[in-house]
Amino acid sequence: MKVRKYLRGSGRVLAFVFVASIIWLLFDMAALRISLSDVSGQQLKERLIREREFYKKESMQALHPRRSFTHPVRRVADLPGTQKAPRRPKDDLFQVYRHKGEEQGQRVKDEQHKSLYLAKSNHSKFVDLKLGNAAAHQNDNAPKQNSPAKKEAVNLNVNAVGAEVTQKVAVKTLPAAHKAVDKVDSKPNEKVKDVKSEIQPKAIKSHLAQTTPHQLSNQDVKEVNEKVAQMQVKVTDKNNLGADKGLKPAVNQPAEGKSRVSTIAVRKSDVHKVLSLDATNSPRDPKAVGQFGQAAVVANHENSEVEKRWNEGHFNVYLSDKIPVDRAIPDTRPRKCAQSLIHDDLPSTSVIFCFVDEVWSTLLRSVHSVLNRSPPNLLKEIILVDDFSTKDYLKKQLDDYMSQFPKVRIIRLKERQGLIRARLAGAAVAKGEVLTFLDSHVECNVGWLEPLLERVYLDRRKVPCPVIEVISDKDMSYMLVDNFQRGIFKWPLVFGWSPVPADYIKKNKMKDTDPIKCPVMAGGLFSIDKKYFFELGSYDPGLDVWGGENMEISFKIWMCGGEIEIIPCSRVGHIFRGQNPYKFPKDRQKTVERNLARVAEVWLDEYKDLFYGHGYTHLLNKKVIDIGNLTDQIGLRKRLKCQSFKWYLDNVYPDMNAPLAKAGGLVYNRGLRKCLALQSDSLSFETCDLSKQTQHFNYTWVRNIRHHELCIAPQVQSNNFALQPCDNAKNEQRWLHKSSVSSLAEHFSAEVLRGMCLEGKLEGQALHLRACDANNLFQKWQFTHYYAR
Length: 789
Prior knowledge:
32% of the residues lie in helices and 18% in strands.
């Protein structure tokens, strides 16, 4: 009764509210508990969504890359997929400068593989180098206690499975193997046992059979077991494999987003992931000027010093001297490059730097970047070729500094030879199997060397080039270059960068890690098999100092059976300057023109007229410039059985517009309303008829009006014309047509007789020379086809 009394009226409402509140609280607590227990799953789900969106955006960028011929450069902060975040202090940058702070869960695993691989190399002199930040921050990436372990995706690639499982078994059976690196220094003659060679396919198969269900399905295990069984095939001798074409099997990469088993036969050589070595002599200072490739600035009172020292190298020398010689730079490689598989038995290389009066700090930074970021077992030596420098610091001071590095040696030329002959001097004494040429103001990025050597390993006729990224000449910041850029040339043999055509990317389903066919290399940075380099005749020894050598070797490689590739997984920063600081022993312009003329005469065949017609017709007169003897170079081309330049244009650079004539077809006179025709040894006019070959003429790149082997030439004394055998070197056979003088664009104006034009005469239908008249219809001529302006 008492309860009923209290539940009357407003009491009943209060009771209902109280009970409802209790029930609501219980539901809320239950929901909160479920939410807390599922927070890790929710975070994982959100992360997968973000990564899916990123890879979708990345694939779209691969199909539709940014087009930028004049500005192929971006700041590191503009990396695709990165979020705009507040600027980090330098202490934080020290830990996240690679890939803008991306997680690197595989780092510890890679370091273990790296230790085993370097131990196998038996190069004790360099094993004691520190492994830089990658090793220093292993603990930062280790999973925390009480946190769920990450599940790793299973790699079903045979080579990858063999490499990774072998590594795991080796670690279990020989736990002391990781200490082998430290012991090598104390016992330099002791060889580390090759533990990988003892791992039999049975062990791999057994390991895979024990894989837990969440890693492999039964069907996957069955497929992998079948592939592992195929590993027990007869091993083909390395020297005989692909001997007919000089090719070796490539390492197939696992397809992104799905499991894929390689179908190539297993080689005797093992494979490993690209080593991201970054060794330093001492711990890096995260607060140093320009550290991590960041833009550096100077105070206002230092601007005068910057301007004063600018001309020493035509870049900010004052700021360069403030930056550490072994500074860190951002890892700008595409994401998948770190997972690329590389053969263990790559050839060794000699890295050749040629310099003359180079800035001290940039030369040292170039050398340190090679020493710190190259696998020691692959770096045979670094050769510094001093092309008769005049700076005192590049003499004894340089000798003393480099004496601490056993692999660095200096060659000094007794007189100025120029870049071309300096490189030949370095190549002549190189001991490595591969020659790697670099400019003396670069910074090699992590993992730069192995992808280059891998291409040479697969085919000795491949000439790989790194992606050349930009080091700002003003603030020394490191900037990356858009993917899918290639080297090309424009007439008259001017090098430039251009995007790979979008339809080519789509047709070949190119990824951002795929090698890019390159019609012309920049010339400053590339690797080439040493024997192949000399088989090709090296550089043309008749080329002087600098200029045109990149064109010459590019045409030679492609036309004589080789290939030039740009390797996106190899990246090297380069200081691009607005002005060439080097002095030429002779006139700079004449030296470059002479070199290009040699290249044109040897390699361009009939297309050399396009070179001369773009402003170099004066080089056709041998009295103006002597390009030297070409007998040896022409003989070399015949001996190598090289292709024609037309083949090069059709197969290597098909998007190059290279018509052999500027205009052609019938030549129509607007006053006579008839066409020019050849009759016996004279010219007349006839009713236009495309079927008559006697009415077909060409207007060539060297400005000749040509009918087969005969050219029209003005006669100075008689104000008439004559038909002469064509000779490109004769100025008197040249006519201006469609020239810059718009009022005379349709006229044929004699080049040697300024103001005189070719005129059709009504009486007798003859040709004469008359003073040019912009309104005279009898002086206006039109070709049927115009191929170029």
